[in-house]
Amino acid sequence: MTIQRPTVEYTHVSAEIFENEIVPQNRPAILRRLVAHWPAVQAGLESPQTLCAYLKRFDQGVPAESLLAEAVSDGKFFYSEDLRGFNFRKSKLSIGAFLDRLLASAAEPSAPAMYIQSAPIPMHLPRFDEQNVNPLLARSIFPRIWIGNAVTATTHSDLANNIACSIAGRRRFTFFPPQALRNLYIGPLEFSPAGRPVSMVDLDAPDLARYPKFAAALESAEVAELEPGDAVYIPYYWWHHVRSLDSFNMLINYWWNDGAVADPGVSPYEALMLALLTIRDMPSSQRDVWQAIFDHYVFLRDGDPAAHLPPERRGVLGLLTPQQRSHIKSVVARLLSQN
Q1: I need a surface site. Which of 26, 78, 253, 264 has the fewest CB within 10 A?
Q2: Collapsing DSSP states into helix, strand and coil, what is residue 124?
């Protein structure tokens, strides 16, 4: 399957250009050569062995979760056939031990798919980020490392903005806008291969007889291919499918949220689960009522719903204080414990 629409590209991106020109568009963007100067990228260009030796200089032996799938998986970490499990198994290895196995597997004719995903660098490779600094983000936004062979991350989304930097190997990203949700045929919300809901459609060979609306999703898709040293910006909740194109791949990514009033301790998915429990199975006339209520109070379709009240009397409709956030959480917890 070939997607013709390319993701927009930028070169010589500064923090000012990123913040003032790229982020406001709320679309994926390729940031060519953003981290080409990193020592890690330069080591990877020399050879996988050189990069592995470089990484081992920082390894503290802290175990990271690694995934392994048999060669028949074609590098795709996914569900088992009956959707009751997954087609891979997990283990704990230090970064150094994983790299040794990864290099050794390159000589195997039917090498398994191997992957370390989202390992926090401050925990596993301290001081790596002192030599490899993202020029666009504050140092308080810490990096995570992804290492593997030719593996595929199925179409998924994240509740955060993301800059993903290609360190070794080429990667192909396929993007779908948040509104494509209705056409992506998402799997179980509470049980997924990587902790985030994923599309059930095989992007490389979509079964349009079984998933006919996916054709509409493809019309909105765009693709980005990264070389070592390139990066890509992925806005909040944009769906993305990621394929590693070489036998040795490494990526560093950064997740962050800009929402000053968002509560970092509560995920919107928890609100979704509560809505499934309390609203979805109502008669349609009652669901319509709650859709109007949410539009008014949560999505602010009619403007500020508390503008007519004095600021000091707006309660939970105003700017939430830490005390009010704590109160809301305790009320919800108490109500759920009573049922």
Answers
A1: 264
A2: helix
